[in-house]
Amino acid sequence: MDAVYAAGSLPIAAGDRATKVMATRLTIFGFVVIDEIQADGRVRRLRPSEAFHASTECPWRVSKPSGRYRLAEEEPESDRELFAALQA
Fold it and tell me: Rounded to whole angstroms, how far apart are CA atoms 67 and 86?
């Protein structure tokens, strides 16, 4: 997860089952998102349930999520502290 967050994304080889299992666990909790790279180069975002059942036929790209929670800049600092953990 540190490598993904530092680089922004991390490619995973098609046959790297152990890394795919760990990435699947991280995506279930919302820490990363998984894109499956199709044979023709198209990219398809996998839902956690799809990642769990995905095969080792296609490589993946694991990325940090863009973020579900956005705070407006005009929010008071006291309110921003309430959501600090969600922005990390």
Answer: 8
